[in-house]
Design brief:
By secondary structure, this protein is α/β, with parallel strands linked by helices. It folds into 2 domains: 71 residues, no CATH class; 163 residues, 3-Layer(aba) Sandwich (Aminopeptidase), CATH 3.40.630.30. The protein is 38% helix and 15% strand. The protein has 10 helices and 7 strands. Strands 1, 2, 3, 4, 5, 6 and 7 form a 7-stranded mixed sheet that branches. The longest helix is centred in the N-terminal third of the chain and has 16 residues.
Length: 250
């Protein structure tokens, strides 16, 4: 289980610095650093303090520990994840392509899909909430949210967040939702309205801090900065605001 969450816009240089600091602490015999090595390095679970191997603890080993703390099996996988660029959709056409890419369309044609039309109508004002995830110039996921109106203080409706299957399990869904939340804060919104998740999806949102107002709803309320799988709506409050989110039952 990861014990750290990556920020919405992770820096590879910052992660490298974390690995260097860990390496230095391990070589100096820091008990907390050695405990992290025992927990997250697959070969060193039983290593004794004072071991010569710890005295010459290599940077590659420190990088592996950092990667596994963030939930990645290797430093290479973490680097690949950080290489993903999350940005607003560049045009209505790219918004449409991303909507199709993640399988969000529910009607025979996109122009007949009321869920897409809800998002597309708000593109001029809410483009910062309509994000794509790009790796090596290719779209690999997207997250779409919108406001009912442009007045500050209202809620944002999260329509879809999803990624292509090869990138599932990399934490990219969490990065997308954090980026949407931060964009919503900048637009003056106070909450995110979502649909009614169930099963594993419900547990995912609970793990991100959502809580229920009643049996068919989940919500979160907080004031700290920072904090999907596809599907219609769910909800939670926002970083830097009063964070009152509601997950409706349908």
């Amino acid at each position: 289980m990861p014990v750290r969450d990556l920020p919405g816009d992770p820096s590879l240089e910052h992660l490298r610095n974390q690995a260097r600091v860990l390496q230095q602490r391990v070589r100096a015999g820091d008990p907390g650093a050695i405990a992290a090595v025992r927990e997250f390095h697959p070969r060193l679970a039983g290593i004794a303090a004072g071991s010569p191997e710890l005295a010459r603890f290599p940077l590659t080993a420190a990088q592996l520990v950092i990667a596994r703390q963030y939930g990645f099996g290797s430093w290479a996988r973490l680097r690949r994840h950080v290489a993903v660029v999350i940005r607003p959709a560049g045009s209505p056409g790219e918004l449409a392509r991303a909507f199709e890419l993640i399988g969000a369309r529910r009607a025979p044609a996109l122009e007949q899909d009321r869920y897409f039309l809800q998002v597309a109508r708000r593109f001029p004002d809410d483009r910062p909430l309509m994000l794509v995830a790009e790796l090596d110039g290719q779209l690999i996921g997207a997250g779409f949210a919108f406001r009912r109106c442009s007045q500050p203080g209202g809620a944002v409706t999260l329509r879809n967040v999803a990624i292509l299957p090869p990138h599932d399990g990399t934490g990219l869904q969490r990065r997308l939702i954090r980026a949407i939340e931060l964009a919503a804060v900048r637009l003056g919104a106070e909450g995110v309205i979502l649909g009614g998740p169930a099963g594993a999806e419900r547990e995912f949102y609970l793990s991100m801090g959502y809580r229920g107002r009643h049996a068919a709803a989940r919500a979160r309320s907080a004031r700290c900065p920072d904090r999907l799988r596809s599907g219609p709506g769910r909800a939670r409050g926002l970083p830097g605001t009063c964070r009152c989110g509601v997950v409706s039952g349908s």
